[in-house]
Amino acid sequence: MTQDEAKRLVAKRAVEFVEDGMAVGLGTGSTSRMFIEELGAKVKASGIKIRCVASSDASKALGESLGLEVVSLAELPELDVYIDGADEVARDADGSLALIKGGGGALLREKIVASSAKKFIVVVDSSKVVAKLGKFPLPIEVIKMALPLVEGKLTELGLNPKQRKAKDGSVYLTDENNYILDCSVGVIENPEETAAEVRGIVGVVEHGLFLGMAAMALVAGDDGVTEMQG
Ligand code: 5RP
């Protein structure tokens, strides 16, 4: 099975968790894109009524193009379910799910939407499941003015920050108009400790460690979709 086939498979499974009347959070990235497509198809075919909040401008535009009602979090502050991808999924020492997110640059809004949902379901292909987080660079969203300060502090912590560039070589900006520093951290032995260190730096808006937030991960591989409970 190719990675794209696995993403499609898990996206199809994830729509089974959406029922009539629900408030649904839409994630960001290629797996979420497939989920939004499948959700749009389900709503069209079944006529169920749902309302959505998106974690990025791109997901909002996609959802609306497929006929989904996408409103602001202010209009719909409590979500029944949030479905989103991840860059890495591991089990934390206490058995909960620990994620790195933000490869698509939407970590701040993603964490806000995830925090507003009763249930956060992660959708990944099996290549994303790791024993320990850290091979994927940890994204950190930074206020523009604070960039040199934050870069220096992260370097002191040995986290090897590198400013993200867009595909055309320009400086990458998030939907909230902030910068991203991608940190080549190496194996993260204690994600809570790393999260606290990063959070303590003035000018950091958010980091891509999502610890104990996901209720479940749906993981697609050659054997189909398996569930990792959080
Ligand atoms: C975006 C994210 C994505 O969920 C993450 O990067 C996974 O993306 P993909 O489904 O394309 O592999 O966190 O900020």
UniProtKB/TrEMBL annotation:
GO BP annotations listed: D-ribose metabolic process; pentose-phosphate shunt, non-oxidative branch
GO terms under cellular component: cytosol
Metabolic or biological pathway: Carbohydrate degradation; pentose phosphate pathway; D-ribose 5-phosphate from D-ribulose 5-phosphate (non-oxidative stage): step 1/1
Enzyme class: isomerase
Residues that, per the record, bind substrate: T28, G29, S30, T31, D84, G85, A86, D87, K101, G102, G103, G104, K128
Residues the record marks as active site: E110 (proton acceptor)
ATP-binding in keyword set: no
Family recorded in the similarity comment: Belongs to the ribose 5-phosphate isomerase family.
Assembly notes: Homodimer.
Name listed for the protein in its UniProt record: Ribose-5-phosphate isomerase A
Native species: Granulicella aggregans
Lineage: Bacteria, Pseudomonadati, Acidobacteriota, Terriglobia, Terriglobales
